[in-house]
Structures are given as structure tokens and as C-alpha cells.
Amino acid sequence: MRTPPSVPAAPAAASPSFLDLFTPKLVTVLREGYGLAQMRADALAGLTVAVVALPLSMAIAIASGVSPDRGLYAAIVGGFLVSLLGGSRFQIGGPAGAFIVLVAGTVQQHGVDGLLLATLLSGGILMAMGLLRLGTYIQFIPYPVTVGFTAGIAVIIAGSQIKDLLGLTLGGPEPGPLFDKLPVLWHSLPTVTPAAVAVALGTMAVITGLKRWRPAWPSLLIAVVGAALLTTLANLPVATIGSHFGGIPQGLPLPGLPPLDWARIEAVVPNAIAFALLGSIESLLSAVVADGMTGRRHRSNCELVAQGTANIGAALFGGLCVTGAIARTATNIRAGAHGPVAGLIHALVLLAFVLIAAPLASFIPLAALAGVLAIVAWNMVEKEAFLTLLRSSRGDAAVLLVTFLLTVFRDLTEAIVVGFALGALLFIHRMSQAVSVEAHTPPHPMPPVAEDRPDGAPAERTPYQRDPAVDPGVVVYRLSGAFFFGAASTVGSVLDRIAAAHKALVLDFSGVPVMDSSAANTLCGLARKARRAQVHVVLSGTSPGVRGTLETHGVRPPLATFAPTVDEAVVQAHAALAAPPPPAKGPA
């Protein structure tokens, strides 16, 4: 009989190189082969996304307290760079509703120049995060934090649109915080403009209706164009982009740096960090959503570098901060995009609008854009996920509600940090409960009555002892779960009580995948105490990593011995008990 040839072991997977991690997806797509069919698909998708991004970019800019052209500049320059350099095939970059609160607060504190400087600095921070390969860790943000954070932002966006939805005239500047804003809006209710309410409601009705009955149609653009035509033809007394901002410049501005000095840089650094933190979360979350829709995989660190470059580029051209936009990315995928070329075309279509048709934007009513953002805010809330988390467990509900309330009433960065900390504590608590110490079940079940005992005699045995006469004082216990600092004290106290009642203790570590220094130090203390009490400790089934951690912290002979299996550990324990005790030392 011929012996089959041995199959060589598969080589260990090499760690990815720098080029593997940071090659843009555009390069990957072009290497695969790019023809007319792919170009046609990307052109259609890019045009579709541009139609969605056009009114949305202007609406986000206005809600952020700046002129609408700055939203378009961010979508054009930032969107182009995200698709050119990004690590996701389908990511669409541009201004996002999640940034409205941060941008508006930065403008109020430091002005537009301060906003551009913060955006520029945040781009550098994002690039550094990507080059340091920190993008991998963004995915560890707990799900209740993202759901609560997104819902909180949606509430803030909706609150920021009440003024334009109702056409109110305020006696002074609109406050940023929701608690301060609501009383001012309440006292301004007598100035409500019925025409603005009608335009806003009509815009929302058209968007909702088209989404339901004609989902393939560009509902946002149709609703905004229809509102502009109605307002112009009927001469309605409604504020428009032209009456409020004087229109949109026809063309891109020349690139330039915002005013730089150390005092200003120090003042906007907290805002830049907040932009970078939120931008990294939003963009990588959008990339994960795109992966789930397409089955592809993005390069997170490459995406962060692209987002950083996009923010620097947007700031140089006077635009808002840029991030991956989930809604526009999903629209891009549904429109049949093949790769990043669709994002490039989306940016070029927006540029063509600014160069050719910018004067037409003057007729767009602010109430219509407020209606667009109201729909966006409603769609941002993951309603089913929110209710599910409230019902799932007290811990998840607490993390969700704390993040949501801090987002709405305190600060976005504080909400993320506190929510993440609570989520980490909840995880530690759950992991500590998952660690167990239980009596080991022998591999061969023992008969209910021993052979050398009469029927009816008690059959109780200590765990794993085949017979007390043969196995006196030897007990075997099995540990399972991650043995770490959260469970070290609890497990240590249990093991201490077990060791005090026996002459030899066998601990099976085959169910312990990982151990940290706190747990190893606890076990070292147990072994020292057991040695003083002349209790022999044998550890079985330790993985190389666990054994290395134990030995580093002093758990080695003579404190404890190691065995590959439980049976061999029991043999070692027997041998240790049968060996004569060491001779007592005489007087010095």
C-alpha cells in the first residue's frame, strides 16, 4: 500500500507590509481591471450620490452656522480626496450631520477662521492615527454607545432646525445648547411664518412619499427644487439662500491657510481633537456598513489617512470638516457603484454645479433645507436598536441612556468617553462572572458503588478521587474563562479555600485562553501559601502564553509543577505525596 505523500505545513501568515495597509482602494480596483462597463456603473452611481449630496451639503453648512458654499467645498474637495486615497471601495466623504453641533460651537467660540484651523489640525491628527495604526481599535467602541450617540445627535439636529421649520424671527443669536435654545424658541413662537411651515411640511411630505412609492427617484433634489419653484412663483414670504446669504460664489476659492499663531492653535486644539475623534468613528462606522452591504473589507488605517488628507484639503479651500457619510455611502452602493471612481465623479458633478448653476441655489428656501435635515435626523435614529437595547439588559440600557443624555445635554466628546468607559466596565464585570472554578469530572465515569463496598454503602467521593485510600487528599479543579484582574481576587479566594483542605491541588488550565499579570500574581501568592502549608500544586493544560505569564511571575518549581494533562498531573501529585518529607534542618 502506497503511503500518501506528506502535505507540507502551511507557512505562517506574514504580517501585512506598509504598502498592503495603505494602498488606496482605487489602486486595487484599477489593478483588477477597469473597463467601460465599470465606468458606466460608477458614472450613474456618482451622479445619483451628487444629487443627494447637493442639498444635504448646503443644509448641513447652514445648520452649522456658516454659509452653504462651505458645505459644497467640503463635499467637492474632501469627497474627491476620500475616494482618491481611501481604504474603502464605496465610501463617500463630505460634511455630515453628526458634526453640526461641534462645528456650530466652534464657530461661536472661535469664528470661521478658528473652524478652518481646527479642521486643518484634525486632519493632521487623523493622519497620525492612521499611520500609528490606531484605526483597528475604533471598532471596539460598544454598540450601545454608537446607538445612543447617534440618537442624541439626531435630537440636536432636529432642535437646531425648529427656527427655520417655523420661520421664526429671533430677537438675538440662537443659543447652541438645547436647554438654552428651547426657551428662546418658545418666546419667539408669535413670529411663526405660516408659509415657511407649509414649505417645510410639503418638503418632508414629498421626500417621504417618494421614498415609499418611487424609491429610485432623487427625492431630496425633487423636494428642494419643487419648494424653490413654489416659493419663487408664488412669491412666498420665506427666507431663501439668496435673501439670507446673498447666494453662492460661482467657483472654488483659491487655497490658503487660515491665520496661524500659537495662541489660536492652543485655543482650537480641543475642538480639533473632538473633530478627529468623531470623524474617525463616523468614517470607520460608515466603512463597516459598506462592508456589510457588499461583502468587501476596508483598510481602516488607510481610510483614516485619507480622511485626514481630506480634512486638510477642505480646510485649505474654506470647507467644513469631512467624514465618511453613511447615508450617501449606502446610496452609492444601492446605485450600483463599482469602486471609488463613483466618489470621484460625485465630487466632479458638484463642482460642475458650482461652476455653472450656482446662481440657481439662491432660490432655495431655508425652510425646505430644514425639512431635509428633519428627515435626516429622523432616519439617523436607530429606533429598533434603541428599543432592543433598552430591553436587553440593565447594563446595556444604562450605557445607552447615559451616552444619549450626555450627547443631548452636555458634550459629544464627553458622551463618547463616558459611554466607552461604562461599556468597558460592563464588559469587565461580565467577563469576571464568566470565569469559573469547578470540580473536574474524571474522564471515565466511576461506578455508583465501589467494588470493595457492600451495596447501599455511601458512594460520595471528593472530585476526581478514584478512592480515598489510593488518592488521599488529592483534588482536581478546572478553571475556565479569561483569568484576568477582574476575576483574580474572587478566583484566588476560592482556590485558597480549596487548597487549605487538601494535601495536593491539581489545577486544570486547559479552559483558560488568556491570563494577565494580576491573575498570575494571585496564583503565585496561592502557591507560596500552599508551599508553606506543605500542599503540592500541579498545573495542567497551560497554553504557552499562560505558562509564560505564570513563570514570569514566579509560578515555577518548587512552588508549582506543570503537566501536559490532568492524568499526568494527578500522577505527579501522587508521587509528591508518596515521597519522604525533606529532612528537618538542624540548628544553625
From TrEMBL:
It holds the Pfam family STAS. One of its GO terms (biological process) is transmembrane transport. GO terms for cellular component: membrane. It is a multi-pass membrane protein. Residues 464-573 form the STAS domain. The chain crosses the membrane at residues 43-64, 71-92, 112-134, 141-162, 184-208, 220-248, 268-290, 348-378, 398-428. Residues 439-465 are annotated as: Disordered. InterPro entries: SLC26A/SulP_dom, SLC26A/SulP_fam, STAS_dom, STAS_dom_sf. Keywords: Membrane, Transmembrane, Transmembrane helix. It comes from the Bacteria. It is found in: Membrane. This is SulP family sulfate permease. It comes from Roseospira visakhapatnamensis.
